[in-house]
Write a structure and sequence with these properties.
By secondary structure, the chain is an alpha/beta fold. The protein has three domains: 94 residues, no CATH class; 284 residues, Glycogen Phosphorylase B (Rossmann fold); 238 residues, Rossmann fold. It is built from 34 helices and 23 strands. The protein is globular, with a radius of gyration of 27 Å. The structure holds N-(hydroxyacetyl)-beta-D-glucopyranosylamine (9GP).
Length: 834
C-alpha cells in the first residue's frame, strides 16, 4: 500500500497520512473514488490502511524477538473465535479517536465501516473465544507467542431462524478477502497421511522409520497480526490452509497415478473446508482427526525449523518453546514432536521423551464425557501409521510405570491406559506426556482431581494446577461498551485498560447516588441501543425500562436454556391466572447456536420462539413479558448484548460448566448473576459477595452424589408440584404448538421419561425449578429498589478485576510457561511516550 517516510510509533498516529492511505487504497484496489466505493470496499480500504500501521510494529516486534530470543509459547488450538479485527486493532493501537476523526472528516461513519467486516468465526464458543482473549493478553503483556490453528474455508455456520427453527447457512467469511491476513508460502510444510511404515537403512548406516505409500498435502500458513495494547508489540496468529502438493497434471493419467492425484486434490480441499460445529461434543469423524494432524504437524515442523534457525542443540528445545494444548484436540502434537525428534533429528527414545515432556502442557476444558476424544485404533493407525506406532510405545512404557506404582492392579491399567478397548484416549496421552495439566476454574480443577482424573492426580499430583479463565477488558468493555468505559475512566483513571485490578477503585462510588444515577443512565442508553437492534432484526418492540434478563451461549442441555424458558412459561401462567398481579416488566433475551445434529437443542430453540410468539402477542400479558431470540449470536452482537444486560443467566447444572466466560463479560458490564454454584460462578460470587448475586440450586457435590447413585426420580416432582406439572403438560398439549401438539414431546420425555434417554432429567431441571423460580422472584424484588440495584451493579464492575485474561496469562507465564518479558528498544519506547 502507500509508502511512508518513517515508522509511526504506536501513540503517534498520523491522521492525515491515514486519510491519504484510505483514499489511495480505494483508488488502487477498486479504481474508484470514495463516493463511488461500496461500504464493503471502504471497509477493505480502511482495513488495509490500518494493516499498514500494524505492519511496522509487527516487523519491529519480530526483529526484536530475533535479537532477544525470548522463550515462546505456541498456543495450539483447533479454534480461535477472533471476532472482528478492525475495531479491536484500532483500539489496541490507541488510535480510536484519530481514526474516528479521520473518518468523520472523510464523511464516513466508523461504526458503519466496522459493521461491514464479517465476524471471523473460527470457533464454536467459549473455548475458541478464550484462545482469542489469551492472544490479546499475550501481546499486551509483551510475551512472545504464536496462536496456531486452521484457516477454515467456512467458519461457524450462520444461524437463520425460519418459522422458529434454526437453519444453518454457510459462513463464507473469506468471500470479499481479509485485509489483515498475510499468505506466507515460504513457510509451507508437507503433511503426510496413510500408507505404511518401513525401516530403511540410510547412507550413514542408520536404520530409519519412513512412511511410504502415503498421500500428502501442502500446509500454507496465513498470518494475522495480534496487536498489543499501546505497547507496539504484535504477535502472530498463524492459521494453516491446505493445497494439493502438486498441481494436477493430466499426464498423471498416463503414469497411472491419476487416482492419487485426484485424491490428493480432494484431501487438500476437504481438510480445511469447515469447522466442526460441535461444542462440548465429539463426533469421531475421520476428517476431524485429519484436521488435527494437519495443523499440528505443520505447526510443530515450523516451530522446530524456527528454533533450529537460531540454535544447534535440539535437546534444549524446551528451553525456548512451550506447546500449550488447548483441550485434547491438538494432542497428536505429543507424538508428532517425538516423531520429528527421533526420525529427523536422530534422538533416542529417552532423549526425545525428555524434550517432549518438558515442552507439552495440557488444558482440560470439560468434564462432559461426550466431549472426551477417543479414536478407534483401526482408524488412527490407518491414517497416521507412524504416529500410532509411537503412541503404542508411549502406552507400553506408561503401563509399566502404572504397574510399578500399583503392582498387580489391573483396574488402574483399565482406567488409565492410553490405548484400551480398541481406542486411543487423547486425554490420557496428554496427561501422560504433559508436564502440566490444568483446569479452567477452581471448582473444575477440584472435580478433575477428585473425580474425573482422580487416578492420574494420585499418580502425578505435581502436574495438576488451576488457571481460572479470564476475558479481555479491551474488547468487552473498552470496545463493546464505550459509555461505561469512559465513565469508569472518569472515576478511576485509565489504568484498568491494562491492569483490571485497578477497577476496584470504583467500589467507593457504589453508594454515591449521583454515580448510581449515572451508571443506570448508561445502562439505559445501552438498552436503547440493543432495543433498536432487536427491532431491526426481530421486528419486536421491547421496552428499555423493563429488566433485560439475558442468556447467551451455546445451546446445550447442561446449560439449561430449557429451565429458563420453562420458567417463562410458568410466569406466563401466573399472569394469565392473575392478570392484575404485581409484576415488573421483563424482557427475556436468548441467543444460542445449536450443533446441527443436536435434536433436543434445536427443539429448545423452536420452543423459545414458540413461547415468544404466544406470550409477546397475548393481550392479557400487556407487554409485561417479552421473549426475544436473537438470531446468529456471535462476537459482534455479543458486545452489544453484554453492555445492555441487567441480569446474567448462568444456570448450568452444577459441576458441568467447566468455567464459563460469558459470566465474566456480563459482570464486567455491570449485570447481576442469577446462577448455580458452578464453574467460575463460584469465584465471581466470592469476589462480589453473595448478596450481589442470586445463587440457587443443587451444589456440584449434590449433583455428583445423585449421579453416582443412579440419578433421582423427577416423577415425584411432577406428581406433587402443580405448577411444574402444568408447565410440562403445556409441552405436549399444544399450548405452544396448536397444530402439532406432539412437537415438544422429546423435550418432555427428556425430563420425565427414561425410555427416550437413559436417565430422566439428567440435568436436574425439575429438581432445581422451584429454587430457580424463587431466585427469580428475588431478582424482581431487588430491581424494584433502583438504588440498591445500581449499587450491586457497580460493585459487580468494581469486583471484576480478577477475571481479566491478563491475570490468567500472567499465571500461566509464572507457573507453567516461564516466558521472558520482551522489552522494546528504547528508541521505540521513547517514541511511544511522545
Ligand atoms: O464448556 C467449557 C466452558 O465452561 C469454558 O469456559 C470454555 C473455556 O475454558 O471451554 C468450554 N469447553 C469446551 O468448549 C470443550 O471442552
Amino acid at each position: 500500500m502507500i509508502k511512508k517516510k518513517e515508522t509511526p510509533a504506536p501513540n503517534a498516529f498520523d491522521k492525515e497520512l491515514f486519510k491519504r492511505s484510505v483514499l489511495y487504497n480505494v483508488k488502487t484496489l477498486y479504481r474508484k473514488t470514495l463516493e463511488e466505493a461500496t461500504p464493503q470496499q471502504i471497509f477493505q480500504a480502511v482495513g488495509y490502511a490500518i494493516k499498514d500501521v500494524v505492519i511496522d510494529n509487527w516487523l519491529n516486534t519480530q526483529k526484536e524477538y530475533d535479537k532477544q530470543d525470548p522463550k515462546t509459547v505456541y498456543y495450539l488450538s483447533m479454534e480461535f473465535l477472533m471476532g472482528r479485527a478492525l475495531g479491536n486493532n484500532i483500539i489496541n493501537l490507541q488510535a480510536y479517536k484519530p481514526v474516528k476523526e479521520a473518518m468523520d472528516e472523510l464523511g464516513l461513519d466508523l461504526n458503519v465501516i466496522e459493521d461491514q467486516e464479517p465476524d471471523p468465526a473460527l470457533g464454536n464458543g467459549g473455548l475458541g473465544r478464550l484462545a482469542s482473549c489469551f492472544l490479546d493478553s499475550l501481546s499486551t503483556l509483551g510475551y512472545a507467542a504464536y496462536g496456531c490453528g486452521i484457516r477454515y474455508r467456512y467458519g461457524m455456520f450462520k444461524q437463520e431462524i425460519r418459522d422458529g427453527y434454526q437453519v444453518e447457512v454457510p459462513d463464507n467469511w473469506l468471500d470479499d478477502g481479509n485485509p489483515f491476513e498475510l499468505r506466507r508460502p515460504e513457510y509451507a510444510k508437507e503433511v503426510k497421511f496413510g500408507g505404511y511404515v518401513n525401516v530403511r537403512i540410510d547412507e550413514n548406516g542408520r536404520s530409519n522409520f519412513v512412511q511410504e505409500g502415503y498421500q500428502s498435502v501442502k500446509a500454507i500458513p496465513y498470518d494475522l497480526p495480534i496487536v498489543g495494547y499501546g505497547n507496539g508489540i504484535v504477535n502472530t496468529l498463524r492459521i494453516w490452509d491446505a493445497e494439493a502438493i502438486e498441481c494436477f497434471h493430466l499426464d498423471s493419467f498416463d503414469k497411472g497415478d491419476y487416482r492419487k492425484a485426484v485424491e490428493q486434490e480432494n484431501l487438500a480441499r476437504n481438510i480445511v473446508e469447515v469447522l466442526y460445529p460441535n461444542d462440548n461434543h465429539y463426533a469421531g469423524k475421520e476428517l476431524r482427526l485429519k484436521q488435527q494432524y494437519f495443523f499440528i504437524s505443520a505447526s510443530v515442523q515450523e516451530a522446530i525449523a524456527k528454533y533450529m534457525r537460531k540454535h544447534d542443540d535440539i535437546k534444549k528445545f524446551y528451553e525456548k518453546v512451550t506447546f500449550q494444548l488447548n483441550d485434547t484436540h491438538p494432542t497428536v502434537a505429543v507424538a508428532e514432536l517425538m516423531r520429528i525428534l527421533m526420525d529427523e533429528y536422530y534422538l533416542t527414545w529417552d532423549e526425545a521423551w525428555d524434550v517432549t515432556t518438558k515442552t507439552c502442557a495440557y488444558t482440560n476444558h470439560t468434564i462432559m464425557a461426550e466431549a472426551l476424544e477417543k479414536w478407534p485404533i483401526e482408524l488412527f493407525s490407518r491414517l497416521l501409521p507412524r504416529i500410532y506406532q509411537i503412541i503404542e510405545e508411549i502406552n507400553r512404557r506408561f503401563i509399566i510405570k502404572i504397574q510399578e506404582m500399583y503392582p498387580g492392579n489391573q483396574e488402574k491399567i483399565r482406567k488409565m491406559a492410553i490405548i484400551y478397548d480398541g481406542q486411543v484416549k487423547m486425554a490420557h496421552l496428554a496427561i501422560a506426556a504433559g508436564f502440566s495439566v490444568n483446569g479452567v476454574a477452581r471448582l473444575h480443577t477440584e472435580i478433575l482431581k477428585n473425580q474425573e482424573l482422580k487416578d492420574f492426580y494420585e499418580m502425578m499430583p505435581e502436574k495438576f494446577n488451576n488457571k481460572t479463565n479470564g476475558i479481555t477488558q479491551r474488547r468487552f468493555l473498552l470496545h463493546g461498551n464505550p459509555l461505561l468505559a469512559d465513565w469508569v475512566t472518569a472515576h478511576v483513571g485509565s489504568d484498568w485498560i491494562t491492569d483490571l485490578s485497578k477497577i476496584n477503585k470504583l467500589k467507593i462510588y457504589a453508594d454515591d447516588e449521583k454515580c448510581q444515577q449515572e451508571f443506570m443512565n448508561i445502562k439505559y442508553q445501552n438498552k436503547v441501543r440493543l432495543a433498536q437492534y432487536i427491532l431491526e432484526h426481530n421486528g419486536i418492540e421491547v421496552d428499555p425500562r423493563s429488566i433485560f434478563d439475558v442468556q447467551v451461549k451455546r445451546l446445550h442441555e447442561y446449560k439449561r436454556q430449557l429451565l429458563n424458558i420453562l420458567h417463562v412459561m410458568y410466569l406466563y401462567n401466573q399472569l394469565k391466572d392473575h392478570p392484575e398481579m404485581e409484576f415488573y416488566p421483563r424482557t427475556f433475551i436468548f441467543g444460542a447456536k445449536a450443533a446441527a445434529g443436536y435434536y433436543n437443542a434445536k427443539m429448545t430453540i423452536k420452543l423459545i420462539n414458540s413461547v415468544a410468539d404466544v406470550v409477546n402477542n397475548d393481550p392479557v400479558v400487556k407487554g409485561r413479558i417479552k421473549v426475544v431470540f436473537i438470531e446468529n449470536y456471535r462476537v459482534s452482537n455479543a458486545e452489544l448484548i453484554f453492555a445492555a444486560a441487567d441480569v446474567s443467566e448462568q444456570i448450568s447444572t452444577a459441576s458441568k460448566e467447566a468455567s464459563g466466560t460469558g459470566n465474566m463479560k456480563f459482570m464486567l458490564n455491570g449485570a447481576l448473576t442469577i446462577g448455580t454454584m458452578d464453574g467460575a460462578n463460584v469465584e465471581i460470587v466470592e469476589e462480589v459477595g453473595e448478596e450481589n448475586a442470586f445463587i440457587f440450586g443443587l451444589t456440584s457435590d449434590e449433583v455428583i452424589h445423585y449421579e453416582n447413585n443412579g440419578g433421582y426420580d423427577p416423577t415425584e416432582i411432577f406428581n406433587n408440584d402443580p405448577d411444574v406439572r402444568r408447565v410440562l403438560m403445556q409441552l405436549i398439549n399444544g399450548t405452544f404448538a396448536p397444530n402439532d401438539p406432539d412437537r415438544f414431546r422429546t423435550l418432555y420425555n427428556s425430563l420425565l421419561n427414561t425410555i427416550s434417554t437413559n436417565k430422566a432429567d439428567m440435568y436436574f431441571i425439575l429438581k432445581d425449578f422451584k429454587a430457580y423460580a424463587e431466585a427469580q422472584k428475588k431478582v424482581e424484588q431487588a430491581y424494584r429498589d433502583e438504588k440498591g440495584w445500581a449499587r450491586s451493579a457497580i460493585l459487580n464492575v468494581a469486583c471484576s478485576g480478577k477475571f481479566t485474561s491478563d491475570r490468567t496469562i500472567q499465571e500461566y507465564v509464572d507457573e507453567v510457561w516461564h516466558l521472558d518479558k520482551v522489552v522494546l528498544p528504547k528508541k521505540v519506547a521513547d517514541k511511544e511516550k511522545n
